[in-house]
Amino acid sequence: MASQLNTAVIVGSLRKESFSLKLARALTALAPPSLQLDVVTLNGLSLYNQDLDATPPADWVDFRDRVRKADAVLFVTPEYNRSVPGVLKNAIDVGSRPYGQSVFNGKPGGVISNSPGALGGFGANHHLRQSLVFLNVSVLQQPEAYIGGIGDAFDEKGELVKTSLREFLEAYIKTFAAWVARHQQ
Ligand SMILES: Cc1cc2nc3c(=O)[nH]c(=O)nc-3n(C[C@H](O)[C@H](O)[C@H](O)COP(=O)(O)O)c2cc1C
């Protein structure tokens, strides 16, 4: 059997009841056996400050190690004011430095945005892609994942109950697994 590949799933919300976090957890159950998902939350990640590059806080080191050891990165994020939430932008900045030592460099990646609204976080999704071009992350292009109407997707226990979304996520993560595998060659 081919060895299992590992993906860091970076969640762009700190909220306990975050839909993005629930989506990330749902994906772990839907991923094919060839792909293991490590859900990375950003609670406690210190703000990036270039003065600390020589003596990085332990939480930066942990975050960078988790992403560095992964074969791929998958971002699951809400949209804040038509862009990327500050905590996620901060994580990208932390992972990208010191200059020349970005933990994202060369990895395959994916972006899933979501919203209770109809547009599914399109603005955040594409602002994030702008940073990922510079960080040399090869982002899966199709299917695009702008998940609108997320508000009725989960029950009170956090279980995914929206069948159409389950089917979409299953197809997405299968395609993503193939994308990640392709980049190992
Ligand atoms: C500061 C802030 C800005 C927001 N801006 C947007 C926005 O631009 N577009 C959108 O669809 N939803 C926006 N929302 C609503 C979020 O989509 C909603 O709160 C969502 O549940 C947050 O994601 P989470 O459930 O993963 O925490 C905003 C929410 C906050 C708190």
UniProtKB/TrEMBL annotation:
Superkingdom of the organism of origin: Bacteria
GO molecular function: FMN binding; oxidoreductase activity
SUPFAM superfamilies the UniProt entry points to: Flavoproteins
Matches recorded under Gene3D superfamilies: 3.40.50.360
Gene Ontology cellular component terms for the protein in this record: cytosol
Endpoints of the signal sequence: none
InterPro entries listed in its UniProt record: Flavoprotein-like_sf, FMN_Rdtase-like_dom, NAD(P)H-dep_reductase
Pfam families recorded: FMN_red
Domain named NADPH-dependent FMN reductase-like: residues: 8-148
Stated name of the protein: NADPH-dependent FMN reductase
Gene source species: Nitrobacter winogradskyi (strain ATCC 25391 / DSM 10237 / CIP 104748 / NCIMB 11846 / Nb-255)
Taxonomic classification: Bacteria, Pseudomonadati, Pseudomonadota, Alphaproteobacteria, Hyphomicrobiales
